[in-house]
Amino acid sequence: MTFPLITTSRWEIEYAHIIDRYVETEGYKALTKALTMTPAEVHEEVKKASLLGRGGAGFPAGVKWGFLPENVWPRYLVVNGDESEPGTYKDRILLERDPHQLIEGCLITCYALGLSQCFLYVRGEMAHGQERIANALNEAYRAGYIGKNILGTEFSVDIILHWGAGAYIVGEETALIESLEGNRGMPRLKPPFFPASIGLYGKPTIVNNVETLSNVPWIVLHGGEEFSKIGSEQSTGTRIFAVSGHVNNPGVFEVEFGTTTFRDLIMGDNYGQGIRNGNKIKAFIPGGASAPWFFEEHLDVPLEKSTVDQAGSMLGSGAIVVMDETTDIVRACHNVVRFFSRESCGKCAPCREGTNWLEKILQRIIDGNGRDDDLELLLDVCDNISPGITWPPKQTTICPLGPSAVSPISSAIKRYRNEFEAYISQSSTGTPVGIQGGIL
Amino acid sequence: MSRLNEESLRIANEIIDRYPIKKSALIPLLHLAQEQEGWVSDGAMNHIAEIIEITPAEVLGTCSFYEMFKRSPVGEYQLNICHGISCHLLGAENLLHHAEETLGIKEGETTEDGKFSLEGVECIAACTEAPCLQVNYRYQNKVTASYFNQLVQEIRDENRSEIPKHGSLAKVRQSIPNERLAGIEPVEHAQQPEWLNRNGENS
User: Fold this and answer.
1) Given CB 3.0 to 4.6 Å as the disulfide criterion, which of A245, A315, A389, B66 pairs with A287?
2) Is B5 on the interface with A (CB under 8 A)?
3) CB A374 within 8 A of CB A391
4) H-state helical runs in A256-348
5) Inter-chain residue contact B180 with A202, CB threshold 8 Å
6) Buried b or exposed e, range A145-181, using 16+ CB within 10 angstroms
7) Which secondary structure element, helix H or strand E, spans residue B118, and what is its range?
8) Tens of pLDDT along B163-180?
C-alpha cells in the first residue's frame, strides 16, 4: 500500500526547518496558491478533505471552522501545541523539524476564515521546539510570508508565539484560551458556548492542533478530494502515531489513516518490529493515557476513528504504548492514575477529589496495605467520576480529564483482576508507609 | 525584592505590545522574571502586576498554577526525570532512585551547593527515547545510570555549555520588524478583514 507522506515529508531532509530549504521543497507554494483562490474556496477544499482534528477528540476541522458566527470580528486562531498526553510525541517533532509547514497551515487557515491574529501556544517544556518555531517565524516575517500585506496582497495577519509553563490541562481548548488570557488554566463550562462562538477575549476563536494545521498546506496544494482518497472513508489522510513502551523499534510513524492496523504498527517491520525479547503482549494503550486499554484480541482493529470508538476505546492523540508480559499491571495502572491526579486542575470536585483517592488507594495496594474491598471501592470512586463507567464515558465534570483517570482502572481490573487480588491477598494492614505513600 | 531589570523590561514591553489585552502577556513575563533570577520572586511578581495593570494577587494566582514557575530558589540545573507511562515501563523509577542516591537528595530537593534540583515529572514527550530526562528543559535520551553520572560530572566540570542556567528557555526569541507588523485589531468594534471581500459577500 502506498500513500504520500503528508505531514512528515521533510523529516528526513536536513535543515528542513530553515526557510530556504523549506521553499526548495515546495514550501509556501500552498499559501501562494491559496491567495489566488477566494477564502471561501479554500475553506471548501478543507471541508472536502474531511480532515479530522488530530488533537484527541477527532472532530472534523472543516466543520469546526463552519461554526464561526457571521459578522463578528475580530476572530482568532489559537494553535494548540501544548502536547502533554502521556505517550504522545508528534507535535513536538512537527514543531522542531518542520515549523514552516505549521506556519503555512496557520496562514492559510487565517486567510480562509478571516482570522486577524494567530497565537501559537507551545508547551513550556519544549525549549528546542520554541527555538525552532521562533526562528522560523522570524525568517517568515522577513521574507514577507507573515505580517502586513502578505506576498503583496491585502491579506495581513500576525502570528504570535506564546508558551506555556507546565500544565497538562491547558491542552483542553477552553483551558488553553484561559491560559492565553493570562489566567489559571481551568476549562470553561460548555455548552452552550464553544470557542468558535465565544473564545479568546470573548470573540470567535478556532483552536486547532499542530498536526491538524500541518495537513492544511498539502490539502490546498493537492486538493481536498485527493486528500480524501487517502485512508478510509471516515478517517481520511494520514496520521502520525508514536509507538513506545516494550517494542523493539519505538518510533514516530506517519501511516495511512483508517487502513493500517495496530498489529501493523506494533509488529510491522517498518514500524514497531514486535515485542522486545520475543515476549508476549499483555496490553496496549491505543490513544494516549486517557484511552481505555486494548489487549491482544484488539491487534487487528484498524486505526480508524469509528471502529476504535466502537471497540471501546479511542485513537485520541495517536500514542500507542505497549506493555509486554513482564509488566506489573497494578503499577502501570497506578502510574497513569497518578498522572491524572497530579494534573487535575481542581475546578470540579469529582475529579479533584476522585483522582486523588484513586491514586491513594492504588498506592496502598502496592504498599501492601490493601483492603479486601479496595477493588470495589476503586470502581465506586470511578463510578462517581463517570457514572456507569461506560464508553464513551459519561462525565460529572466540565472536561474529560476526570473520566480519563477511570479508563486505566476499569480496563486493568476488568482484564487482570487477579493481579490486583494477588497484591491484596499479600497485604498485612499496618505496614508502615511514608506520609505520601511508599514503604518506609 | 528584585524587579525586572532594564533589559528584561525592554523585552517585556515588546511582548506586551503583541497582545490585544495586556494580561495575556502574563505567562511570558513570568518566564522572563524566572530567566533573570532563576526563580520568580515576589518583587518580580509585583513589578509584573504594575506593568500589565493587574493586582499582585492575580499574578500569584496564575503563577502558582503552573509547575514550571518556582517561587523559591532552585538549583542552577533542574533535573526533571520523566516518569510518564512509557518511561515507567522502561525503568524510570530505577533512574530516579539512582539519581537520588548519586546526588544525595530526595526528589523535590536541591543539593547543598545549589547546583542541582531533582524532580520526577510527568510525560515530557520523548516517549520513544525512554527513559528520558530534561536538564533545564534540554532533552537527554535513553538515559542509563552511567550516562546520568557522566552528565552530572560534565555539568559540575562546566562542560555542558549548551545547557543554559535554570530559568532561560528558548535561546531564540521572536522578533517582529515594525514595518512587517500587521497590527492588532481592537477587541471591540473591529471590522471585517479586507481580504474577505474577495468572497463577494458582505462587501
Assistant:
1) A315
2) no
3) no
4) 262-267, 305-310, 329-343
5) no
6) bbbbebeeeebbbbbbbbbbbbbbbbbbbbbbbbbbb
7) strand B116-121
8) 999 999 999 999 999 999
- Closest-approach residue (CA) in chain B for A339: B122
User: Quick check: A86 and B127 CB within 8 A?
Assistant: yes
Q: Is the pLDDT of residue B202 over 50?
A: no
Cβ separation B185–A336 shorter than 8 A: no
**pLDDT-based confidence at residue A47 (cuts at 50, 70, 90):** very high
Q: Which of B128, B170, B192 sits opposite A251 (nearest CB)?
A: B128
User: In chain B, which among 132-151 make CB contacts under 8 A with chain A?
Assistant: 134, 136-139
C-alpha cell belonging to residue A332: 502501570
Percentage of residues of chain A with pLDDT beyond 70: 98
Predicted pLDDT at A213? 98
Supply A161's cell numbers.
508565539
Task: Answer yes or no: is pLDDT of A439 > 70.
Answer: no
Cα distances from A62 to residues A50, A66, A197, A252, in angstroms, run: 7, 6, 15, 26
Q: Which chain A residues have a beta carbon less than 8 Å from that of B177?
A: 141-142, 147
In whole angstroms, what is the distance from residue A439 CA to residue A426 CA?
A: 14
Comparing alpha-carbon positions, the chain B residue that sits nearest to A243 is B128
Distance of CA A20 to the CA centre of its chain: 30
User: Which phi and psi (to 5°) does residue B99 adopt?
Assistant: -65, -40
